[in-house]
TrEMBL record:
Taxonomic path: Eukaryota, Fungi, Dikarya, Basidiomycota, Agaricomycotina
Species of the source: Lentinula detonsa
SUPFAM superfamilies xref list: NAD(P)-binding Rossmann-fold domains
Full protein name: RmlD-like substrate binding domain-containing protein
GO molecular function, one term: methionine adenosyltransferase regulator activity
Domain of life: Eukaryota
Any Pfam family the entry gives: RmlD_sub_bind
Amino acid sequence: MKVLITGASGVLGSAVREAFKSTPHQVLALSNTRTGDGLVPLDLANTQEVDKVLTEFNPNWVIHCAAERRPDVAEKNPEGVQKLNVDVSGHLASLAKSLKYTLVYVSTDYVFDGTSPPYTPSARTNPLQLYGRTKRDGEQAVLSVNGAKAIVLRVPVLYGPAPKNSDSAVNILLDVVQDQSGKQYKMDHYATRYPTNVVDIANFLVRLSDFKQSTAIPPILHYSAAEPFTKYEICLVFAKILNLPHGHIVPDSEAPKGDSATTRPRDCQLYTKETEDLGVEGGLGLTLFEEWWSEYLKK
Ligand SMILES: NC(=O)c1ccc[n+]([C@@H]2O[C@H](COP(=O)([O-])OP(=O)(O)OC[C@H]3O[C@@H](n4cnc5c(N)ncnc54)[C@H](OP(=O)(O)O)[C@@H]3O)[C@@H](O)[C@H]2O)c1
């Protein structure tokens, strides 16, 4: 089988690429600005080049991880984000139809407004910020191509192996805990998150690509870890593992007001029963948060 991964230089895409290394599948790993280590740079906004590369490689699966996923950056470049998160995704779905591959479009729990968790795959979407709206519109663009085999995989906030802590909204909290300079940090203790390990998602995608009853895969799948944490609670876990004081981190339990209300939905928990019940070997295969970090930080 041939597997093409977009965003293979990103946090999730690089884990997906790593996971497929242990399979006999042939992999094409696309990036945009980052190069080296076998990455093939391709600006997905360049439709002609995309058509050429995909037609030549002729994949069986395309795992589309590339996106602008930073809500604050998205707000500053609405047209660019619309192009990448929505138009490019729709185009990859059109190619899925003509080239007959299965497209996995990675989406987010931020398609929901966080007021009535847990959310089933068919629950009404109501994104609060531009990022969530473009990801929701990307879902619709992908699912509206008749005759294309497309799977929307919604995931929550991600963590895992990453070159820089700033690559992940969870990993970056390590820097906050380790900053013992005397600087004080106000930390969100209002929104509940379900940090999910990219290695778990990647391994699940490998097993999903091998799944024999692929016709049973519904158009929208939810994948999420089950352990709830606020950002402040994540800091406490890191402080415990690193044996560091955390008095410089002050919990902020206030409901956000004004502009920040849209950046912190209260609780977007993804209901994963349908995914568990699919019968993919090994189920979700979830890692426990504190256990993983304890091992990872020992290295
Ligand atoms: N991170 C999270 O917490 C989170 C939560 C929920 C859902 N998601 C979703 O999960 C997916 C993966 O997120 P991530 O955290 O792995 O993202 P990431 O680390 O920010 O990586 C983004 C990737 O997109 C590529 N890219 C950006 N612009 C491109 C363009 N014009 N053409 C081609 N590639 C382009 C980047 O390539 P270069 O770096 O080489 O330029 C990079 O590989 C996204 O769909 C995101 O919406 C993420």
